[in-house]
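Weekly sync, protein design subgroup
Attendees: M.S., D.O., the rotation student, P.L. (late)

Item 1: inverse folding check
M.S. brought a backbone from last month's batch and wanted to see whether the design step gives back something sensible before we order anything. D.O. pointed out we never logged the input encoding, so this time it goes straight into the notes. Structure tokens as presented (332 positions):
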């Protein structure tokens, strides 16, 4: 099985913003193929990996898309204006190196008269070193997308990388898939599309699969950095986080209880998560068709949506163990 850092690097270098998930889908398909009974892609771009069983249908979902930038205008001097795909923070991206999907690199900068206390994306541009519109248009066209350009590395027992949200969730599902040898339950590992722009892929995937149980695997915020607001109990090094609620879902008590049971029976360190903002694939899963016993396993992560997100290696491994343990439960 791949080393966690190596796996993270393989997943984060694939440039795949929401709506353009082809590159990351190809990487995940190749990694999952030896452990799957069936793999299919749907119209929305979801990748669905099926491990057959005769028991209850369980859908695990980690989104494979990322936030990013889309070129909207190239001015006469070759500077590229852009809009956000998903939740970009102006304060987090200034002077960040970025790369377009064709490999063109640049840096995010801002207009000289911009008030640094009130940054707005409308005053930002990408500088690719072009001297004119004509030169820039040889490398970038309106509609091209760009992502953060950074490396994955270890800092003590932390992993730091762009796009841990949610490539680290994809890594958790892949590692669990690789370790699950046999299960009575009928397992669907969904690597969903367009989560960052409205939880869209999981909605159609859940409708097609019609699962009995559904678990999202995604990152969550933490309360362990100085003067953080709002306060949260989640912390790096505290174990896998069992979600209670976020803005998209009130997790089903039955599913929360089953996750707690799986953690208790397998001595897996866990903590509880209440996220006051943001949502996950658990939301659309819960309300598909006649309803699903939905919940989520979260990876506590600092600096979400920034170019340098940070998570604890042991928390990630605890999430893998919890997904594996849940998959092996006798579900009714």
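Designed sequence read out in the meeting:
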């Amino acid at each position: 099985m791949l080393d966690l850092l190596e796996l993270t690097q393989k997943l984060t270098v694939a440039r795949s913003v929401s709506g353009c998930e082809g590159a990351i889908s190809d990487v995940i398909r190749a990694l999952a193929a030896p452990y799957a009974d069936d793999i299919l892609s749907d119209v929305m771009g979801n990748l669905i990996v099926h491990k057959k069983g005769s028991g209850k249908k369980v859908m695990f979902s980690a989104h494979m898309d990322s936030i990013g930038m889309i070129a909207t205008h190239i001015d006469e001097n070759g500077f590229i204006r852009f809009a956000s795909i998903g939740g970009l923070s102006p304060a987090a991206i200034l002077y960040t190196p970025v790369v377009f999907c064709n490999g063109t690199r640049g840096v995010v900068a801002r207009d000289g008269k911009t008030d640094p206390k009130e940054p707005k994306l409308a005053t930002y541009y990408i500088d690719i070193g072009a001297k004119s519109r004509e030169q820039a248009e040889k490398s970038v066209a309106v509609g091209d997308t760009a992502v953060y350009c950074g490396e994955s590395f270890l800092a003590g027992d932390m992993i730091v990388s762009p796009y841990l949200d949610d490539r680290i969730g994809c890594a958790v599902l892949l590692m669990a898939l690789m370790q699950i040898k046999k299960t009575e339950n009928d397992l669907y590992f969904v690597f969903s599309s367009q989560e960052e722009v409205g939880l869209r892929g999981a909605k159609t995937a859940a409708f097609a699969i019609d699962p009995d149980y559904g678990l999202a695997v995604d990152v969550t915020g933490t309360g362990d950095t100085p003067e953080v607001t709002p306060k949260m109990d989640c912390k790096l090094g505290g174990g896998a986080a069992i979600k209670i609620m976020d803005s998209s879902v009130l997790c089903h008590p039955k599913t929360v209880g089953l996750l707690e049971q799986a953690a208790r029976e397998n001595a897996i360190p866990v903590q509880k998560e209440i996220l006051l903002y943001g949502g996950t694939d658990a939301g659309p899963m819960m309300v598909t068709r006649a309803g699903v016993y939905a919940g989520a396993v979260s990876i506590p992560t600092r600096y979400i949506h920034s170019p340098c997100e940070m998570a604890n290696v042991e928390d990630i491994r605890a999430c893998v163990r919890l997904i594996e343990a849940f998959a092996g439960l006798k579900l009714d």
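Discussion: DSSP finds nine helices and 18 strands in the chain. Residues 262 and 325 are 6 Å apart (CA to CA).
Action: P.L. to compare against the previous round before Friday.
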